[in-house]
Structures are given as structure tokens and as C-alpha cells.
Specification:
By secondary structure, this protein is of the alpha/beta class. The protein has one domain (22-391): TIM Barrel (Alpha-Beta Barrel). Helices cover 39% and strands 19% of the residues. The chain has helices at residues 36-45, 54-64, 67-75, 87-90, 99-113, 132-138, 151-166, 186-201, 242-245, 266-278, 303-316, 339-354, 364-371, 373-376, 383-391; strands at 7-9, 12-14, 24-30, 80-86, 91-93, 96-97, 118-124, 172-176, 208-212, 232-238, 257-259, 262-264, 287-292, 320-324, 327-328, 335-337, 377-379. The strands form five sheets. It has an eight-stranded parallel β-barrel with strand order 3-4-7-8-9-10-13-14. It has a three-stranded mixed sheet with strand order 15-16-17. The longest helix is centred in the middle third of the chain and has 16 residues, at 151-166. The radius of gyration is 20 Å and the shape is globular.
Length: 395
């Protein structure tokens, strides 16, 4: 049988005809555009029917990912997106899955794929780490690593559903099993990956499975151990130094510069990647940097220079990567939603929750102005040229 998907060959990813490919593009895209804090409040706290969100999500998606966005991404030379799905967007009850959410994922994957852009599908929303965005899950008892929570079993179950849905789809580059997992032990991570891989391989023998290193224990837990599967890539995220890249409200942060007694410049960034590539469980496998970026708040203080140095280091080492991120509501990545649009969306969401507003009352023009990238966002100056040069380097 002729293979139709990308596959791992040693430390490379190759196309169905055996040609090596470097995956370079954007992360942070989603196909179910309902804010998770509103979804959780409505469904978990108020007992509202989760399915009532599906037609709204489907309608918003008509505006939030348009041909403009696909062509904008394609024009940079990007050939991959990292597409998010949150666990309970899909699973709605015992053996119940939202066909709308699955169809929106599939349609998004296929639309980008028809333009030559692969998708890496990543899962989140399972209480997989203790970072701030996951606190809204953890506070509701959704905890991937807690035996009292169903999140572990639910996420494995949903990966089986996704694998069955996308088996053989040539536009899917791979399955990024869990975003930034923070397990209590290497054994817990290994057991979770083994069980998830079994659920995937029961339906899909061909797609690449991407295993993330343990958050906070990259050097020790790594990816948890060894696996009886040759079609595996590994992933980690790069935001060093964190105070510069992830804390835009901290003043007086410069790049190059010293952080916690270490001087960060292009050489230090290159050395950090070199070290990661020596970790035993990462050696000899394709390495995918699922997220990296320094927000535009640092422009004028080294933000674009940091981005350039990271891109140069990754390209020189043959790494795969997706930039954080294509569009953001606050922090400046590639596109940033304007403050007045954020305020209007927040007012709309709050009104819907308290019953004073109805999505159906929005006009076509109002939807366009709220959700379409080109009408609601500003592009970060300078970022397009930097990414375009890096994406096309060596092609």
C-alpha cells in the first residue's frame, strides 16, 4: 500500500516520495473559536448544554479563518500550522463527541492542506500543567495527572477518535499528543504516552506521533523513556530567557542581556539548542520546536533580534518549528487584535452569558469587524520579513 503521509526516517521527516522536508510555520490556530473560560463557566458551572455553542463556533470560524489568512500564511513560505483542539470541545459525555467540532477541525485542516500547508494537531485543555491558562481546568477538577480525574482516560479516548477521523489524511503532518505536559514523574509521562499511542495506532498506523518533553523536567524526565514505535518525533518550546520573552510587563528587559547570571545572545541560544539535541531520548529523532517567540512589546529592546537569532539557530540545526503566534488578543506576535475590538468581544461574551445580548442579533458587518483578521488586527512591524526569510532559507 502506498503511503500518503509524512513519516520519520532517522532524524528526518520525509514526504511520501522520500524527499526530506523541513516544517516551518505558525502556531496558535484553533478551529473552535469559543473562549475556554466562557465555555467552562457555561457548561461546568451553570450546567448549560454544550452543544448550543456549536452553531456559534461554526459561524465565527467563517470569519476568523478566511482565505485571507490562508494566503497570508502561505505568502510567507510557511508549510505547516499547529492547530489546537481542547479536550472537551470534542468529548461531550460518555462516548459522545461533537460532530461539529470534529468537522470544523477537518475542514480547517483540508483548507490549509489544499494550499500546501500541513497541520500538526495538538491537544490541550486537560489540566496538563499548572500554568495560569490551565488553572481554570484544575480548579474544576480536570487534571491529567490526578487519578481522581477522568481527564487522562478522556484524552486518550479522544485521541482514538481523532486518529480514526484523520487516518490517511495527507494534510496532517502529525499528532502533538499534549501541549506542555507537566507530569509528576517520568513513569507517569511514559505510561500516558504508551496508552495514548496505542489508542492512536489502533486506527492510524501511519501519521507521525509527536511527544513533548516534560515541562520543568526536560533534562531528567525528557519524554519519559523508550517507545516501540519508529514514527516518533519529539518537541519542546523555546522561550529563553523567560523574563524577556514571556513577561512583557517587566520593565528594563533587553536582548542581548544578562538574566539570572547568564548572558543571552545568539551564541547562548545556539548552545541551548545544541545541549537539548544531546539529551539521550531526543538524539536521532526529528526535533520540532512547537512554540517560540518574543512579543512585540520588546521591539526596540531586542525582540526582533531575539527572533532572528532563534530562527538562525534552528535552521542551522535542521529543526522543525512553528512561531508563536499568528494572531493574539493581547500580545504582539504576528497579528494582534486591536484593544477596542477586544473590548467589544468581551462585552458581547458577557452579554451572552447574562442574557442581555444574543449572537444572532449581530449583523454581517459587525461579525466581520469583530472576527476577521484584516479588519480587527494590526500586523507587527518587521516580523513578516524576518519569518519569510527564515521559512524559505535553504529551499
Amino acid at each position: 500500500m502506498t503511503r500518503t503521509t509524512l513519516t520519520v526516517s532517522g532524524s528526518q521527516i520525509i514526504t511520501p516520495v522520500g524527499t526530506p522536508i523541513k516544517l516551518r510555520g505558525f502556531q496558535g490556530l484553533g478551529a473552535y473559536p469559543i473562549p475556554d473560560h466562557l465555555y467552562l463557566e457555561a457548561v461546568w458551572d451553570r450546567g448549560m448544554d454544550s452543544y448550543q455553542f456549536d452553531p456559534v463556533a461554526e459561524d465565527i470560524l467563517r470569519y476568523s479563518w478566511t482565505d485571507f489568512d490562508i494566503q497570508e500564511i502561505k505568502r510567507t513560505g510557511a508549510n505547516v500550522i499547529r492547530l489546537w483542539t481542547r479536550l472537551y470541545e470534542i468529548k461531550r459525555g460518555p462516548a459522545q463527541y461533537s460532530e461539529t467540532a470534529l468537522r470544523l477541525l477537518e475542514n480547517t485542516i483540508n483548507r490549509f492542506g489544499e494550499q500546501g500547508i500541513y497541520t500538526i494537531l495538538v491537544m490541550a485543555g486537560a489540566g496538563e500543567n499548572n500554568y495560569e491558562p490551565q488553572q481554570r481546568y484544575l480548579s474544576r477538577g480536570i487534571n491529567l495527572w490526578d487519578p481522581a480525574s477522568s481527564a487522562r482516560a478522556d484524552s486518550i479516548e479522544v485521541w482514538g477518535v481523532l486518529a480514526q477521523r484523520f487516518a490517511g489524511n495527507p494534510h496532517v503532518a502529525g499528532y502533538d499528543v499534549m501541549n506542555e505536559p507537566m507530569p509528576p514523574s517520568a513513569e507517569a509521562l511514559h505510561d500516558y504516552y504508551v496508552d495514548t499511542m496505542a489508542a492512536i495506532r489502533a486506527h492510524d498506523p501511519d501519521h507521525i506521533i509527536i511527544l513533548a518533553v516534560a515541562q520543568g523536567h526536560r533534562d531528567t524526565f525528557q519524554i519519559g523513556g523508550d517507545y516501540d514505535d519508529d514514527n516518533i518525533a519529539v518537541t519542546f518550546h523555546f522561550y529563553e530567557p523567560h523574563n524577556f520573552t514571556l513577561e512583557p510587563d517587566l520593565p528594563d528587559q533587553l536582548y542581548p542581556g544578562a538574566y539570572n547570571g547568564k548572558y543571552w545572545d545568539g551564541n547562548a541560544i545556539a548552545a541551548a539548542f545544541d545541549y537539548a539535541m544531546t539529551l539521550p531520548q531526543l538524539q536521532g529523532r526529528p526535533i520540532y520546536i512547537g512554540e517560540f517567540g518574543a512579543g512585540g512589546e520588546r521591539d526596540g529592546f531586542g525582540g526582533l533580534e531575539w527572533t532572528t537569532d532563534v530562527l538562525n539557530a534552528m535552521n542551522a540545526r535542521g529543526l522543525h518549528y512553528t512561531y508563536h503566534q499568528y494572531r493574539h488578543s493581547v500580545h504582539r506576535g504576528y497579528w494582534t487584535r486591536r484593544p477596542e475590538v477586544n473590548a467589544a468581544i468581551t462585552a458581547l461574551a458577557n452579554g451572552i452569558m447574562d442574557g442581555t445580548r444574543h449572537y444572532a442579533d449581530l449583523t454581517e458587518q459587525q461579525k466581520r469587524e469583530l472576527f476577521m483578521t484584516e479588519l480587527s488586527c494590526d500586523k507587527r512591524p518587521g516580523i513578516e520579513g524576518i519569518l519569510t526569510a527564515a521559512f524559505n532559507d535553504g529551499r
